[in-house]
Amino acid sequence: MMQEPQRILIVKLGALGNVILSLGPFASIRRHHAGAHITLLTTVPYASWLSQSQWFDTVWTVRRLDWWDLAGWLRLRRRLIDGHFDRIYDLQTSRHTSRYFRLLPRRHRPDWSGIAPGCSLPDRDPDRDRLHDAERQFGQLRQAGIIERGPVDLSWSHADIGPFCLPDHFALLAPGSAPHRVVKRWPIEHYRALASRLLAHGVTPVVVGTTPEKPLAQAIDGAIDLTGRTDLAQVTSLARAATVAIGNDTGPMHLIAAAGCPSVVLFSRDSDPALCAPCGPSVTTLRRPDLSDLEPASVMDAVAAILPAQAGALVAG
């Protein structure tokens, strides 16, 4: 009689940058539980894209539940119980997702990796909140018995970018941020100066972001505006084709860097690259308490440093 495969649940709700920083842990869990049936519990913006990966057999979606939404919590409880999971990895590790642990009957709780009080595989590292997000997750997995880690394979994420009719040499710009965190934005006049320098040396600026960020793109003379026109798979393919990417500490820059594009990411006092910098083969971070103090020339110097073959052209003039 064949044994049923182990049933694993991974909890990761968002936001985009946090999801991208979980790609390595996703891959490690899949390698460790190679024969298991793995379900991801996430939110709608990431479900379709992540369902194309090789890491999950099933992708579920959930909305963030208000504490008073009793019917919603009961529906989630029933779903978790009916999943018959042997182990759950809570990679969100928030107070909200720790409540999921308490939804499960005490007598039949699966192994739970996370920070929920009373869970069987707790992350006991006293320094976890001082670690980079990706390192914190890998540390959590090590305590649950998952030691192996390797490079993230994003070959499954691709889409046709031909209809955008882009030139051979272009730079991705990500001038936006979450609307409630505008202090994370490098001033748009600095992006204009940067775009002017790129254009002067044959590199076309291409702006990516959400539809509400369209005014930022329109304020950059000579830029191609793709705000609101790309999904995550298209952003991945754009990153592979781009010469370089420059942007604020925002979700698209995490995906662009993970896809391998040489990236310069700009940080203000509002976030710390030691805790949340994008991960990729070629990432440079620049930080100023007030991003208005970061001059375009300094950003161009950083671009030149990660593109030595083009350094002379990019910093000249």
Write up what this structure looks like:
This protein is of the alpha/beta class. The chain folds into two domains: 7-143, 3-Layer(aba) Sandwich (Rossmann fold); 163-315, Rossmann fold. It is built from 13 helices and twelve strands. The protein has a six-stranded parallel beta sheet, sandwiched between helices. It has a six-stranded parallel beta sheet with strand order 9-8-7-10-11-12, with helices on both faces. Helix 3 links the parallel strand 2 and strand 3. Helix 9 crosses helix 10 (251-258). The radius of gyration is 21 Å and the shape is elongated. The chain starts with 6 loop residues before the first strand and ends with a helix. The model has no long low-confidence stretch (mean pLDDT 95).
How many separate domains? 2
Q: What name does the CATH topology of the largest domain carry?
A: Rossmann fold
Query: Order of SSEs, N→C?
Result: EHHEHEHEHEEHEHEHEHEHEHEHH
Structural class computed from helices and strand pairing:
alpha/beta
CATH architecture of the largest domain: 3-Layer(aba) Sandwich
Oligomeric state of the chains in view? single chain
Sheet-strand content, in percent, reads 15-25%
Report the principal-axis shape.
elongated
How far is the first residue's CA from the last residue's CA? 74 Å
Radius of gyration: 21 Å
Q: Biggest sheet: strands side by side, in what order?
A: 3-2-1-4-5-6
Q: Percent range for helical residues?
A: 25-40%
CATH superfamily of the largest domain: Glycogen Phosphorylase B
> What's the β-strand tally?
12
| Total DSSP helices | 13
